[in-house]
Design goal:
This protein is an all-alpha fold and 265 residues long. The protein has one domain. Helices cover 75% and strands 0% of the residues. The chain contains 15 helices and no strands.
């Protein structure tokens, strides 16, 4: 742990330099997260005929702009990175270093957040200006907990990606598994449709799956749909899922290393 804490600032600086050097690629990755804008147009048009539950036009604007902010800041492409490095055999170079590759991957992805925030911050300002203050969390305790919900969202996204990326050492390519995961995420996280507008049985299932805590939960906290008690319960769920994913990612990594052959080197 001492070695990690000592090396991590340097890893962050290196990761930020790489993000700046490959900023065009970063922009391409961010453009893949614009689906909330499409859904915003669809649902606001539908809401002109009448509200859906408690969602009218302004509520849909607040929800989907907040979803764009959360998705932009908390996304991670580690599964693609690991698949590429395993396929080419360059993962073997990371294995020679004194730090676990997951530590290096996390630093590289965290270092890109400031550049992604340059996109998210204007969206947040537009959210405040168009949706109005009544659609932003106002409880000071809830507002103080918003960053924690973002951290939990990023950790769940990163750890699930690292878990499936490790599968590439066993299957030689695990992106297909990740695509199934993303398909479930789109429906069960609130990315396409707010969870409370889903059938009750489906939204109840979503409460026990990680997808909601990757996006729907932090969005609800950000726009004031979650009170203090619900926010604390959600943070507890995020913490439990992060712990479970740490164990699962470690198990998958160790199982994959036993099969890794650096076949692309």
């Amino acid at each position: 742990m001492r070695r990690i804490l000592k090396a991590y600032p340097t890893l962050l600086r290196v990761g930020f330099a790489e993000a700046v050097a490959y900023r065009a690629e970063l922009v391409v990755w961010m453009l893949t997260t614009t689906m909330p804008l499409v859904m915003l147009a669809l649902w606001t048009a539908a809401a002109r005929e009448g509200p859906f539950g408690r969602f009218g036009e302004s509520e849909f604007v607040a929800y989907y702009l907040a979803a764009l902010v959360v998705r932009t800041v908390t996304t991670s492409w580690v599964v693609w990175q690991m698949n590429e490095e395993i396929r080419l055999g360059t993962l073997s170079m990371r294995l020679l270093r004194p730090l676990h590759p997951f530590v290096a991957y996390s630093a590289e992805h965290l270092a890109a957040i400031p550049l992604r925030s340059l996109i998210a911050l204007p969206v947040a300002i537009i959210l405040l200006a168009t949706a109005g203050k009544e659609h932003i969390a106002r409880d000071p305790v809830v507002v103080a907990l918003v960053p924690l919900t973002f951290i939990g969202s990023w950790l769940i996204t990163f750890l699930s990606g690292a878990t499936m990326g490790s599968l590439a050492m066993i299957t030689k390519r695990s992106v297909g598994v990740w695509e199934i995961w993303i398909g479930l995420f789109a429906v069960m996280s609130g990315y396409l449709v707010p969870l409370e507008l889903l059938p009750r049985w489906l939204s109840a299932i979503a409460d026990f799956m990680p997808f909601r805590y990757m996006l729907g939960f932090p969005v609800e906290v950000l726009i004031g749909m979650s009170d203090r008690a619900a926010t604390l319960r959600g943070l507890e769920a995020q913490g439990a899922m992060c712990l479970g994913l740490v164990l699962l990612a470690g198990f998958t990594w160790r199982a994959g290393l036993r099969r890794f052959e650096a076949f692309g080197a």
